[in-house]
Amino acid sequence: MKPIKAFLFDLDGVIVDTAIYHYQAWRRLANELGFDISEEFNERLKGVSRMDSLDIILAHGGMTLPDEKKEELAAQKNQWYLDLVSRMTSDDILPGVATFFSQVHKANLLTALGSVSKNAPMILERIGMSDAFDAIIDGTKISKGKPDPEVFTKGAAELEVDPDECVVFEDAVAGVEAGKRGGMFVVGLGSPDVLTQADLVAASLDVLTVDDVLAKASV
């Protein structure tokens, strides 16, 4: 087992919780198309790219649309979402994140963001965490969304570390699968009943320490 050199973090549900804003924007779109989506349904969209999410929603509503119309709808949803997240501040950072990142930097670990969101850099700027990462991989740098491991393997490549020297932090099933497919140790943040593929599961970063993670990942 190689020593762990880098921690790779998803954004939504790990650093901040923008899921409610995604849900509000997707639900508004669904409503305009003549149907509704529930919060439970929205769980299926976590960690999934924008166009794939739209396809899931359209299938739920029994709709088939041409690609041009789908691009238009996805752009509209994103604008509604941006209007909501543009009001975010450092108060929106999830509990325990600041303390955990302080421990990460003291341990001299490299950090990367691995998010399929094209809005990730803007959100990091709004919450004052742009400088917290050595590499930022977002939706503009990848061609495949999670559960494909590209977002994490590219992060490892930018940090110049091997996949088995990385720990991924994820809250979504698709993200956990992406980390595992990338050959990385994966910490799932959420319910162990849901994140069954994760190597370690905790409710949030608030209840973890870097030493805890390194001890588990180095076994």
Could you explain the architecture of this structure?
The chain has nine helices and six strands; from the N terminus they run E-H-H-H-H-H-E-H-E-H-E-H-E-E-H. Strand 2, helix 6 (120-127) and strand 3 (135-137) form a beta-alpha-beta unit. It is globular. Helices cover 42% and strands 11% of the residues. The protein has a six-stranded parallel beta sheet, sandwiched between helices. It has helices at 19-32, 39-42, 50-60, 67-85, 97-106, 120-127, 150-159, 173-181, 210-217, and strands at 6-9, 110-114, 135-137, 166-170, 185-189, 200-202.
CATH architecture of the largest domain: 3-Layer(aba) Sandwich
CATH H level, superfamily name of the largest domain: HAD superfamily/HAD-like
Structure classification: alpha/beta
Spell out the helices and strands N to C: EHHHHHEHEHEHEEH
Strand content: 5-15%
If you compute it from the alpha carbons, what radius of gyration comes out, rounded to the nearest whole angstrom?
Answer: 17 Å
User: What is the name of the CATH class of the largest domain?
Assistant: Alpha Beta
Number of strands: 6
Helix content: 40-55%
Task: State the strand order across the main sheet.
Answer: 3-2-1-4-5-6
Distinct helical segment count: 9
Say what the CATH topology of the largest domain is: Rossmann fold
Binding site for Mg(2+): 10, 12, 170-171
Protein name: Beta-phosphoglucomutase
Site (Important for catalytic activity and assists the phosphoryl transfer reaction to Asp8 by balancing charge and orienting the reacting groups): 115, 146
Active site: 10 (proton donor/acceptor), 12 (proton donor/acceptor)
